[in-house]
Specification:
420 residues, mainly beta, Methanol Dehydrogenase, Chain A, five-stranded mixed beta sheet, globular
Length: 420
């Protein structure tokens, strides 16, 4: 073997191992919520560490090169906080502050419900100062490199938008109760590269994903109230467009957690709160071009799907937790038909607003009250293991997994389970 080939293979192996170890954005690698195992023991009596998080926030942690990054806000709303911790010890490495102000949010939301993103070289955050939404780039020491103000932000529920980064571009869905768009920024300089208007109605909190298919250029996939779209990440040109057609007189629903990619499908889900429980999910085929509204739909469901918690995909199956009621469902990815639908939490304590993740073959679900369910991702339902974290705080952030350590953020504490 030539020295060049050997060096190239070693470099590739190292790059793959590093990228595989990180949890670099909301729901981890490409927003899938999936990581290689094994899952560490989750024992609330003996965590690797547990530390209080300054301020208050519902954004999820990310993990890059052994460091944990998360966003928060002071109780009075006067400051937004960007926090870096050592992943092995929980020790605070640095905290950066931005000015802000108090602003109305949903009762289950906070002033810091966004999740950062990283490409391993820099960090990217979406902030809402109470009036305007902006995107900021930082180096790994927390030094701000650039910022871009997207504009005023208006929503009944407050903010919860999270960026992604792909091949030197940062993408943000600037979606609100009003003028909305998807924006692409240069990751190094923050220069605005392109923006594409999206039909607005109700603020959505969808985090984009990148679709990579053999023999085709990468595509940026975005869902909001009125459509699912595939964009060319370099130009912003629409590859294909699927319009969501709400029945006459029906409630127009929001997209919150994000879509899932599996079996040549984009599976998106929508809902509303307030006790009404209206739900919708649709699977759209990825191979089309232009307007695929008439031909793209593979299947749809109008009940029994989530609103806030994201969907997981594994081995041709889908798994999701209901927002309330304590049940978890497994469905066939090709048809959407249920395989099993089982009670996991007690009905009176089973609210789930955190997105489940999959570590190896184990699904990890964290309820609002801090009860962790661990269950096998399989066509056959097995009784889950239930672990109570034993805290009075609420849990809305989605877990993160990296370096064989599991991170769970509560409203006031961050927990780490695993080994140093």
């Amino acid at each position: 073997m030539s020295r060049f080939l050997f060096t190239a293979l070693c470099t590739l192996s190292l790059a793959l191992s590093l990228s595989g170890a990180d949890w670099p954005r909301f729901r981890g690698p490409n927003g899938s919520g999936v990581a290689a195992g094994p899952l560490p023991t989750i024992d609330p009596q003996t965590p690797l560490w547990k530390v209080p998080v300054p301020g208050k926030g519902a954004g999820s942690p990310i993990v890059v090169a052994g460091k944990v990054y998360l966003q928060s806000a002071t109780e009075d709303g006067a400051r937004r906080l960007f926090i870096c911790l050592d992943g092995a010890t929980g020790k605070t490495e640095w905290i950066k502050e931005l000015p802000g102000e108090k602003a109305p949010t949903h009762a289950l939301n906070t002033l810091a419900s966004s999740t950062p993103a990283s490409d391993g070289e820099r960090l990217y955050c979406v902030w809402w100062d109470g009036t305007a939404m902006s995107v900021h780039g930082y180096d790994l020491s927390g030094k701000e490199l650039w910022s871009d103000t997207l504009g005023p932000f208006k929503s009944q529920h407050g903010v919860g938008h999270s960026p992604i980064v792909h091949q030197g571009r940062v993408f943000v869905c600037y979606d609100q109760d009003g003028e909305s768009s998807v924006v692409a920024l240069d990751a190094k300089s923050g220069t605005r590269l392109w923006a594409a208007a999206r039909k607005p109605e109700r603020a959505c909190y969808n985090t984009p994903v990148i679709l990579e298919e053999p023999g085709k250029p990468a595509a940026l996939i975005i869902t909001s109230t009125h459509s699912i779209d595939s964009y060319d990440p370099e130009s912003g040109k629409v590859n294909w467009h699927y319009a969501i057609k709400w029945p006459a007189g029906a409630t127009v629903l929001r997209s919150v957690g994000g879509q899932v990619l599996t079996n040549g499908l984009v599976i998106a889900y929508f809902g509303e709160g307030g006790g009404k429980g209206t739900r919708y999910a649709v699977a759209v085929k990825t191979g089309g071009s232009g307007d695929v509204t008439a031909t793209g739909k593979a299947w749809e469901l109008r009940k029994g799907t989530p609103y806030v918690p994201a969907i997981l995909a594994k081995n041709g199956l889908l798994f999701w937790a209901y927002d309330t009621g304590g049940k978890v469902l497994c469905a066939d990815a090709k048809t959407g038909k249920p395989v099993w639908d089982e009670q996991v939490y007690k009905q009176d304590s089973g609210a789930v607003y955190s997105s489940p993740i999959l570590v190896g073959d184990r699904i990890v679900i964290v309820s609002e009250l801090g009860q962790v369910a661990v269950m096998k991702a399989d066509r056959t339902f097995d009784e889950p293991t239930l672990i109570k974290l034993g805290e009075k705080e609420k849990f809305y952030a989605s877990p993160a997994f990296a370096d064989n350590r599991l991170y769970i953020r509560g409203m006031t504490n961050l927990y780490c389970f695993g080994k140093k």
